[in-house]
Design a protein that fits this description.
4-stranded antiparallel sheet; 2 domains; Arc Repressor Mutant, subunit A; transcription (chains A, B); chloroplast (chains A, B); Jelly Rolls; alpha+beta; 8 helices; homodimer; cNMP-bd_dom (chains A, B); DNA-binding (chains A, B)
């Protein structure tokens, strides 16, 4: 359809769903980059490793893992902007001035692919299916930000934590016999950082949720027993 | 460059900045739709008029005015997701289930253009400059959501209100001799709705900001005298 697209027909099936086989060989972004000989870098982050970014010229794609995105206002304070997981991207935030920068902190073992943003834009104009994939991805990014807004719109820390657990259970949970188990371990300190609180408060609230049997811990992972009952806990605040 | 794009060369200058002349004749979206004979509808909303949307099949473009986007969870509560102004869009949020819907409430006289989302996607594939414009717009949408997160990440209502006034001054303000005047009048009730509070609290906090001369009111509009001093008020909470 466009003369610049060398193998458009080849790149259509890349964006079909494929959850079997080796993870990296079926990641839609990497499949597309590899088939079209597009250069990218891979960063492997351990838990608590932090990636600083203050330029909108690169796009970071989370291949696997989870990161907290934070805006750091120089000499003042930090604001947690989002919790991103496998398939999410960051880096395409505008830069206003020198008064702040962004950082991404891994909350689990995380692999990130990094690519120049101009390369992505060029790929969009050269390959219509990739362009559609990218447009849909950007719409999904806004939706993801709105999910985070639903968590922190609560003023009460108990409501924020219950909302976060519900979102994690929905997006990063696996059904087990007595509820939904989170796919990763998460420290009280990280939970506090996400919801803008402190470790002590989070430990106290989790102890209460455990006592009232709304959650339990198994193999160091949180299990949400009943999303309905937990969501009622939010409204009762 | 692509055989489907009838007048690609013509549509390039549409996306250049043009702030002179009649507003609607130089709106980039309308210019593009009109030149390419793309159908759209215009809705004129008065203050407090509400537009319900529970489908992601249409894109709404704010031609002029301001709206609050709210997620309404059936039988339970509402969450304000964002404050959108001239040039912003909404509607492209995913629909998960029947437990909620979205509404957009005008906080000022507002004109909205509405177009089928499939038409936008088709236009993207037919016209490369429009596609680039739309991709940049979607990136901007995420950034806008992050601005809102910065406001409601505060647990204190005073900090949320001060953050909101700073954002409004930056994005919807005009420099006057003694500070930055907001471009529209806004009621205490609407301010409360945006930050998840009530009218009484907002009135009390605004009275305090007036008393300490951080803001003043002129022609029913709020003037922020010093963004620096007001931002310090946030940190002191």
């Amino acid at each position: 359809m466009t003369k610049n697209c060398l193998n458009q027909e080849n790149c259509i099936p890349i964006f079909s769903e494929n959850s079997s086989g080796d993870f990296f060989s079926c990641n839609p972004w990497l499949l597309f980059f590899n088939r079209n000989k597009i250069n990218y870098q891979i960063f492997s982050l351990k838990k608590n490793d932090t990636l600083l970014f203050n330029s909108s010229s690169r796009l970071y794609i989370i291949l696997i893992g989870s990161l907290i995105i934070t805006k750091v206002l120089r000499n003042t304070h930090k604001v947690t902007l989002n919790l991103l997981t496998t398939g999410d991207t960051f880096g395409q935030i505008e830069l206003v001035d020198d008064n702040f920068y962004y950082e991404a902190e891994a909350i689990d073992k995380t692999e990130v692919a990094c690519i120049n943003y101009t390369t992505i834009i060029k790929a969009c104009s050269n390959c219509a299916p990739f362009n559609l994939f990218f447009v849909n991805h950007l719409v999904f990014c806004s939706a993801k930000a709105y999910h985070f807004i639903e968590i922190i719109s609560h003023k009460s820390i108990t409501s924020r934590l219950a909302s976060l657990l519900l979102l994690l259970a929905e997006q990063n949970g696996t059904q087990v016999n007595n509820g939904i188990m989170l796919n990763f371990t998460i420290t009280h300190k990280i939970l506090a950082q996400i919801i803008g609180s402190n470790r002590v408060s989070v430990t106290r609230i989790l102890a209460n949720l455990l006592k009232t049997k709304l959650i339990s811990i198994q193999k160091k992972r949180i299990i949400v027993h009943s999303p309905v009952l937990l969501s009622q806990r939010i409204l009762n605040q």
